[in-house]
Amino acid sequence: MSQKPVLRFAPSPTQTSSSVDKAPKMAWGSVIKDAEGEVTVEFGVEFAATPTVVLTSCWTSAVHHVETLLSITTTNFRFSSKNCAADYRVNWIAIGQ
Fold first, then answer.
1. Which DSSP category does 87 fall into?
2. pLDDT above 90 for 11
3. CA atoms of 71 and 76, how far apart (whole Å)
4. Distance CA 51, CA 74 (A)
5. What are the phi and psi torsion angles at 41 (to 5°)?
6. pLDDT tier for residue 16 given thresholds of 50, 70 and 90
7. DSSP state of 85
């Protein structure tokens, strides 16, 4: 009898461990941030519970401010920073159920 694979994730500060018995739902993308302030990004799918979101920035020059996640829901997330340029890109991935 074969067993289902179990995915294990690194613990977050609010939980000691996490595992799932089915593949996680994922959404990912990239957004150009050409103005200071807040940005809302829609996942394009709805998660059953609030997913984990990871942001990375990509720019041809030095990045001076960190992107800060302001909120995460089952359908979108909001982030903010002072970084902006016509070619300043923020990449993201959301993982959940």
1. T
2. no
3. 8
4. 7
5. -120, 125
6. very low
7. -
